[in-house]
Specification:
eight-stranded mixed sheet, alpha/beta, Thiol Ester Dehydrase, Chain A, about 20% strand, Rossmann fold, globular, N-(1-d-carboxylethyl)-l-norvaline Dehydrogenase, domain 2, seven-stranded antiparallel sheet
């Protein structure tokens, strides 16, 4: 990727592509451009480590260059993210068009300038397209793709595929229009927010509360039209429009009438915004924003809806890519044949009131390791999509030591036994430094046909993979504790 400009948006693009394993060539005359990218990459790593346990690919390399021509040399995609000044963007894009190979796609991150105007000085405008992202680019999946009349349809298709390959959700704008789609909606809300402050109806914090405690939560999954459809009940959107449509004629909104930004209004907005920040620095507010976005995205991922569906698909592709390339986060096979398929850093948020990892996290780590084992034997996307998988039917965990915040732990896995329908796994949770045994997990899984709702034999290729693992693990003795049940005192008789 060739990147022109490394401001807020450009550095976010760099972080997204670098974490996807793609090399970035950056041109930005600002002396601190590389530092801005490094800050964005650190924030992106932090966010994605919270968002998914999938092993990310080896990071791409950032190369800072001295000219537009060097930035676009040998790349498949050029992403221009210079300040929103038409004359500057037009000049940079023309330089990129002159220097880049004929099959290189050139995109701009503009938030609303028309692509036909930006491409005015380009000789090969057929390979130019808008790719408008949203901040933070490394975390939010939406990218608006907008073409001009001179843009080739294949450019739109290819650009969308490139964005999709790094975990984004391209939204192709049907025709060229100022502000595209999302910013036109955001600007309408922003105008009304300014009027509410200007008319002393609400403060900045109260307006934000109206969004984040109400409609914003619905918008995260349902958007606008689907939300209103629900408001129509069983009769749907027609009933909603019949019931609430007349209210659109009421003088509730200022539409495009913008309040004059007087010194008094600006002072009020600044003071209210400062109070709302409550002493947090910009860096702290960005971290809070990312943590909250991760929480929402993880929730939506579990529901498989909205932006969560994009995250789930990206996560699945990352896991499958790691399996194909044998780039396991924890290092593959141990000397005695056990599989080291999963490792994790114990997050401080996992620590309970006793000062060590809380109980349910042990099960979570074991379950994630079971998933890694299933991927190892080929129970991945196509197999699961065909309605076949393994279900855990019994689990026994022994807690032998404590895991503390900041510990790097890994899981060593043994295949204790299997047949065409059953799978018997043994996990050992160990501290990476010192290799101390922290916990063991024993799990019995059944192979199922989800559509039929019953156990069925696994496919031949799955059974073959299990046989290979079993043959490689014949050496180790039966692990101590395997096959045990919970042992304790007899129940006390209080009668």
């Amino acid at each position: 990727m060739g990147l022109l400009g490394a401001g807020l948006i450009g550095s976010g693009w760099a972080a997204r592509f670098l974490l996807a394993g793609i090399d970035v060539r950056l041109f930005d005359p600002a002396p601190a451009a590389a530092e801005g990218v490094e800050d964005a990459v650190r924030a992106a790593r932090r966010a994605w480590r919270q968002l998914t346990l999938a092993p990310l690919p080896t990071e791409g390399t950032l190369t800072v260059v001295d000219s537009v021509a060097e930035a676009v040399d040998g790349v498949e995609l050029v992403q221009e993210s210079a300040p929103e000044r038409e004359e500057l963007k037009t000049r940079l894009l023309a330089q990129a068009d002159e220097a880049a190979a004929p099959d290189t796609i050139i995109a701009t991150s503009t938030s609303g300038l028309l692509p036909s105007r930006l491409a005015a000085d380009m000789r090969r405008a057929e390979r130019f397209v808008v790719g408008h992202p949203f901040n933070p680019v490394y975390l939010l999946p939406l990218v608006e793709v907008c073409a001009s009349e001179r843009t080739a349809p294949s450019t739109v298709t290819d650009a969308a595929a490139m964005y999709r390959a790094v975990g984004m959700r391209p939204l192709v704008v049907r025709r060229e229009i100022d502000g595209f789609i999302a910013d036109r909606l955001l600007e309408a809300l922003w105008r009304e927010a300014l009027w509410l402050v200007a008319d002393d109806v609400a403060t900045a914090e109260e307006i934000d509360d109206a969004v984040r405690f109400g409609a914003g939560l619905r918008w995260a999954s349902m958007g606008t039209f689907l939300t209103y459809r629900l408001g129509g009940g069983d009769d749907g959107m027609r009933h909603f429009m019949k019931q609430f449509g007349p209210a659109l004629q009421l003088p509730w909104t200022h539409l495009t009438d913008v309040p004059e930004l007087t010194d008094g209004l600006l002072d009020a907005i600044v003071a209210q915004s400062d109070a709302q920040a409550d002493g947090h620095s910009i860096a702290e507010l960005k971290a809070i924003r990312d943590d909250c976005l991760v929480a929402v995205l993880r929730g939506l991922k579990g529901a498989g809806y909205g932006a969560g569906e994009v995250v789930a698909l990206t996560e699945r592709e990352l896991f499958e890519r790691a399996g194909r390339e044998r780039v396991q986060a924890a290092g593959g096979t141990l000397s005695d044949g056990r599989l080291r398929l999963h490792e994790v850093l114990v997050d401080p948020s996992w620590i309970d009131y006793n000062g060590h990892m809380t109980e349910y996290r042990y099960l979570e780590v074991m379950a994630d390791t079971t998933d890694a084992f299933l991927r190892e034997i080929g129970v991945v996307g196509p197999y699961i999509d065909a309605g076949r998988s393994y279900y855990t039917v019994e689990t026994h965990i022994r807690h032998l030591d404590e895991a503390h915040g900041g510990d790097r732990v890994y899981v060593a896995t043994r295949l204790l036994g299997h047949d065409e329908k059953r799978l018997h796994l043994w996990h050992e949770l160990r501290r990476d430094a010192g290799d101390e045994l922290i916990a063991t997990g024993e799990h019995l899984l059944l192979h199922v046909d989800r559509a039929a709702g019953k156990t069925t034999p696994a496919a031949a290729e799955i059974l073959d993979a299990l046989e290979r693992i079993a043959a490689a693990q014949q050496g180790p003795a039966w692990p101590e504790g395997a096959g045990n049940h919970v042992r304790g005192p007899r129940p006390l008789n209080f009668l």
